[in-house]
Amino acid sequence: MTRFMLAALVALSVAGCGRLNPFGGAGETDEVMRPDTISAEIPDDRPLVPALAGIEVEPDTTGAAIVRATAAIPRPGYWKAALIPLPQTDPGVLRLAFVANPPTDATPLPAPDRVRRITAAYEISPRDLFSIREIVVLSEQNAQTIRR
């Protein structure tokens, strides 16, 4: 009886993981082609970051999800980073543009890799999360996607 209860408890807890982590903990991202006309669609005056280093989706305690993207930047000093939602072109696909203001100082500063990273996040509400099956994050040089 104890084994049966333990097995049932494990099965039920594993079945609930999909709701708690909407993208299944699939840390796998795919590199995709970035559209050439993307800059015209961004409703913001900040430029796209140079290149994406990675994206991940984590569950929130409220049932929402948080998309976190990290960009590789050529030098320190980028500021006011954000993930900006773009107009929806495909149902079920959330497209985010990773934008940031570049440094105002024109002198390049040497810095280690860990300093040449910038991170931004975007919260997806539980209502919106229900209809999203794919998230695409765009930068100047590349784009990455994560699917359910």
From TrEMBL:
This is Lipoprotein.
